[in-house]
Specification:
Length: about 100
């Protein structure tokens, strides 16, 4: 029992999007490393990524379901460089390739 990490991404906006999705559903969440980025303008190391945590680990499966089910919000994998991109983006953030159809 306790808090559990549900989502992390180097893009803080995606983490905040996930947070609001879960909050709307009534799931208690909090952020870690929310302000870890931005000082240098460079990519932060993984451990400094903003993290979205559930206050209760029993919410985990429901939260994962919500994040997966959000219509058209599934991440997509870039065919060019293999990077995982948020659904909000039509181009790979890393190499600028366009999103594959479907
Ligand atoms: Zn790419």
């Amino acid at each position: 029992m306790g808090a559990v990490l549900i989502f992390t991404h180097e893009n803080r906006l995606l983490v905040e999007l996930a947070r609001s999705k879960l909050e709307v559903a009534g799931i208690a969440v909090f952020l870690k490393n929310e302000y870890a980025q931005g000082a240098t303008g460079e990519l932060a190391p993984h451990q400094a990524w903003p993290e979205l945590w559930l206050e209760r680990d029993r919410d985990y499966e429901r939260a994962m379901q919500l994040l997966r089910d959000a219509e058209g919000q599934a991440d997509w994998i870039c065919r060019h460089c293999g990077e995982s991109n948020g659904a909000a983006f039509d181009y790979c953030w890393q190499c600028d390739s366009s999103r594959p159809p479907g």
